[in-house]
Amino acid sequence: MKNEFVVNIIHRPELSPEYAEKSGGKKAKKVSEESLDIFLFQQECAHKNGLKTTIHITYASLFNDTIVNVAKEHHEKYGDEIALSLLGLPCPEFKAKYKTEDFCIWMFSKEDKRKIVDDVFGLFYEKFGFYPKSTGSYFLDAYTINYIKEKYPSVTCAVATCWEEGSKAYHTCNNSWYTFLDGGPWNPWIPSKINSHCPASSKEDDSGIVAIPHLSRDLLACFDGNGSNFGTHPQNVIRGMIYYKDENGWQYPYLYNLVDQYRHLAKYNNGYSYNMMFVGPGWLNKMGRWEAPYELLKQSYEDGMAYYGKLKKEGNLIDMTMSEFADYYRKKHPNYNTPESALWKDILYGSNKEYFWYADPFMRTCLDFNQGGAMIDLRNYAARVPFETGIGTDHVYDATYPYLIQANYRAGYFTHYAGAGTCKSCKVTYKGETTDLCLTRTMAKYEKVAEGVRLTTNPVTLLLGGEEVVIQSVFTFLEGKGTLQIERNILNNVEEEVTFTEYMTGAFGIHEYQDDMSKLTLRVDDEKMNYLYKGRKIIHQNGKEAEVIIPDVFTSIKMWGDNDEIAVEEGIAFSPVYHLSIKKSVKSGGIKTWLNLAKAN
Question: Exposed, middle or buried by CB within 10 Å (0-12, 13-18, 19+), for 599?
């Protein structure tokens, strides 16, 4: 069966773009006219390449008869979908009615969320005579999604998060961009009714919509750096200065490589892959942006759309509207436990760095094969952490889903203070010498197996005690279990026993600063201790399992496996982490352990 590459192209006629209000006093009429011109240009780019779009009508656009009429015309002529955006709220009419400068739907109180949704949906119906099938925002919290689906059941698809838009983006925007919402999926998912970041686990947990990310990002460069520079809408690539000019004009091979990398994900997702381009007119305004002239912004958009058109003509791309994609996605994912997987290579810097991303209703995680397969990000979706956002809640503006491991916010293996960074890896000891597999570089092979998804690394050679020890790691995600099985195997003959210490150093939170750890409970078998920042350990010989319970994020983490020794350890105030570990010595074979995430009441 041929792989299917599905693309959503979304255009937003934003007549009161926020950028223009802060950009030197351009008159409102001129901004409105320019934004309309850019929207029409974007639509033309899609249509001349044989592509249909989803038109995300904003609140401001609903007051403009030209936009309404163009949307109707393009719906009839090209099959474009007329959808409703919950971005673009802060127009004069909205500010006068709601007496606020706020504009992010997830940051309003519950009462105001309901009022705004009813207002915008009602005006949409008044203009078009039907309710939309699709909607969206930078982020849509579970409360808002549940309300929309209950009140407007026609909605089947929504833009619901912007992947990795968190502290890194905040810092690179001069601490001014308060859209903290990382920790969600990078690819489409069916949101849970409890927390929209989490994929639904069952029909009862299904919010009734299919969610898509705000942009398709580079799953390596974006995680390591500022995601706003690495996305499949061309102006992100321009902002990242990932282009050059030669005798043939402007060139941006990275943009095409990024689209192709997404095409490649079909290999890991049962023959389907997804990409989206979502661009408001502000990115193409006539003043230029990011030291780039309008001519470059315009050309890059034309070239990017032409590439999609070329793929479609070759039979390598299916263009869908958002609601069409929602129907398609549900057919492709009849089982809620079906994961989204991405074995992602570095396509920007020319290294052999490789990440593996995995998401299902139990976990989202990332393995870094440049560190031997170390786990550098972990979120417990099984917990369905019920964070509410908006005024009147404990999370007014920060919608981030909490991490258990996060190498960028809480360091990883490479930290100045031994053991202080969050990661999951394995130490190998032979003839009195120890190293960590974090210090090895390898690549991985993906395969779908009966149990779920398996990654097998290329063997790595360790020089310990003056001898070589060859190790191969195997990671198996057990579908529907919330469990990762890890094997470390010796591939050569050794004179003495090799000791493996499989460990996890964890924390929890939504940013760089650690919350209070004193509610944690650490356990090995029947022996427990509460976290007191004293660096204490519990060690059992041939124990059954180690566990940490983190009430603040409703999380239970368990590790078990055949062992000589199993242990838990609390950190100290200077190093507020916890440790789970399993140790085993063998002369041949290896060690097999399991890591399980579950909800803790």
Answer: middle
